[in-house]
Specification:
Order of helices and strands: HHHEEEEHEHEHEHHHHEHEHEHEHEH
Number of helices: 15
Structural class: alpha/beta
Largest sheet: 8 strands, parallel, barrel
Shape: globular
Number of strands: 12
Strand content: 5-15%
Bound molecules: flavin mononucleotide
Radius of gyration: 20 Å
Length: about 400
């Protein structure tokens, strides 16, 4: 067995920690304020059990499905992450790995690689946008993604500019110039493999956001883009419906945690929602997304595709989410750790781990297809779910 192969996502995380400069690793781990939500995202999966069968199991299992019109080989999609400096090949390596494993790619508008380079290697790309800038600017960015071949749009709304972290936020320079390199030297020099990867390409991470570049302009730095976002008037449900209409193709609203918001998303005409709390990076104290899933799936699962993200570290987590009503899941940190550990091959490794785990759980539960999973496959402790916004939804 090669030394670069790893057995679990936990091992990928350990390797990412060893390999990345401290500030880059801590940006991945993130989690706002006290970290209540980020911890609950993973702990909640641990509270759920399985009700397995032992005989009469199926020799073959169907894992394929569709999300927003795309056929995928298993119910897993790459979640968009606006994170920089993990690996020189960045989102292009992730997109290649996803394509190699038959998985769709979500690309953040804050990503380090241009959408054209990503769609070129994975045609199943969904472009993700926040509500940043004027309607005119939003349309420009959206049309660029369409021209590049993006097959779906993800609008992420769950961001309320929380900034403090009890564990200490990483120091991210405005741009990587000589001054920044000298300041970061103590942490980068002790990570020679990371440095070598970048040195081989001859390019240092420049911390810019090429997908937010105005026509004929230069890519803004991460902080400039974030500043523009902070000054943009906050979006309304009419804005959501407007953007969906402008896109006119498969459209996902990411970050829904309440039944009333899920119903409003249906009214706005979305194709899909992701039940998500931004991986615990947003409003701390929001419950784990898996706790909110059952009520939302029950309320709108017949009308739109319901996905989930937050805390997926194993194939069995994916199976639990499907049993509780998700069509598929999105993964964030799991693939970022794989990317840090071993580039494209590391992301493929993570996807293989998830596939193996999904297959094993579906086998143990006595099914021949992921489409046969139900609540009965899962042992749920009393009080597990949180029906956020259920009463308010009844008034709509
Ligand atoms: C470092 C980092 C950056 C992220 N950036 C974005 C982003 O730009 N757009 C977005 O929609 N979600 C973003 N997310 C949230 C992820 O898409 C996803 O919701 C979350 O990571 C899922 O939780 P998990 O990491 O436990 O799988 C980010 C998450 C992380 C960890």
């Amino acid at each position: 067995m090669s030394k670069t192969w790893f057995e679990t996502v936990a091992e990928a995380q350990r390797r990412a920690k060893k390999r990345l400069p401290k500030s880059v690793y801590s940006a991945l781990v993130a989690g706002s304020e006290q970290g209540v939500t980020i911890s609950d995202n993973t702990a909640a999966f641990g509270e759920l059990g399985f009700a397995p069968h032992v005989a009469g199991l199926s020799a073959t299992r169907e894992l394929a499905t569709t999300v927003m019109g795309q056929s995928i080989s298993m119910p897993v999609v790459i979640s968009p992450t606006g994170v920089q400096a993990v690996h020189p090949d960045g989102e292009v390596a992730v997109a290649r790995a996803a394509a190699a494993r038959g998985v769709a790619m979500g690309l953040s508008s804050f990503a380090s690689k241009p959408v054209e380079d990503v769609t070129a290697v994975n045609p199943q790309t969904f472009f993700q946008m926040y509500w940043v800038g004027s309607r005119e600017v939003l349309l420009q960015r959206m049309e660029r993604a369409r021209k590049a071949g993006a097959v779906g749009l993800i609008m992420t709304l769950d961001w309320s500019f929380s900034s403090g972290r009890d564990w200490g936020s990483p120091t991210i320079p405005e741009k990587v110039d000589l001054k920044a390199m000298v300041r970061m030297a103590p942490e980068t020099l002790v990570r020679p493999r990371w440095l070598l990867e970048f040195a081989k390409t001859g390019i240092l991470p420049d911390l810019t956001t090429p997908n937010l570049k105005a026509p004929g302009g230069v890519a803004p730095t991460f902080f400039t883009a974030y500043g523009e976002w902070m000054q943009t008037p906050l979006p309304t449900w009419e804005d959501v419906a407007w953007l969906r209409k402008q896109w006119g193709a498969p459209f996902m609203l990411k970050g829904v945690m309440r039944v009333d918001d899920a119903k409003r998303a249906v009214d706005a005409g979305v194709t899909a929602i992701s039940v998500s709390n931004h991986g615990g990076n947003n409003l701390d104290g929001t419950p784990a997304s898996i706790r909110a899933l059952p009520a939302i799936a029950e309320a709108v699962g017949e009308q739109v595709e319901v996905l989930l993200d937050g805390g997926i570290r194993r194939g069995s987590d994916v199976v639990k989410a499907l049993a509780l009503g998700a069509r598929a899941v999105l993964i964030g940190r799991a693939y970022l750790w794989g990317l840090a550990a071993n580039g494209q091959a590391g992301v493929e490794n993570v996807l293989d781990i998830l596939r193996g785990g999904i297959d094993s759980a579906v086998l143990g539960l006595g099914h021949s297809s992921i489409h046969d999973l139900t609540h009965c496959d899962v042992v749920m402790p009393p009080g597990f779910t949180r029906d956020l916004g259920l009463n308010a939804a009844a008034q709509l």
